[in-house]
Amino acid sequence: MHHVILSIPPFLLPKKSWNILMSDLENHFGDDAYVEEETHNIILKFLEQNSAETSTKEAAFMILDSLKNKDIIAITKSNYWKKTHKNIDNNIFSNSLVKSKANCKACHNDIEKGLIEDENIKNISSFTSYM
Prior knowledge:
By secondary structure, this protein is mainly α. It folds into two domains: 1-68, no CATH class; 87-131, no CATH class. Helix content is 31%, strand content 0%. The protein has five helices and no strands. Helix 1 packs antiparallel against helix 2. The chain is globular, with a radius of gyration of 15 Å. It comes from Malaciobacter halophilus. InterPro entries: Dihaem_cytochrome-c.
């Protein structure tokens, strides 16, 4: 049995992005995320089967529309992410509890379950007291 924790749900990127991301795991956003070939193939198959193109979630449709077939592997670089996070002060992302725009879990309690709707987001005002 393989256990892998994804930092974002597969439906937030299209197959093309997952393939690009999985093709260079040794340079995974500055980290070495290399896995054995068997594990790699299992993960890639899962990501492809659950990518944005296969999802009925609104966010998946919005991501696909936002990317317009661009080769983006960082969700934070998508127009959809930028639009949905535009009212968040940039200082929040450098807060010691958040650390970066890529740390979805800091605000989205159940991101690993694919729950990104507004009612599943932490009150980010608590982060301003730790700046």
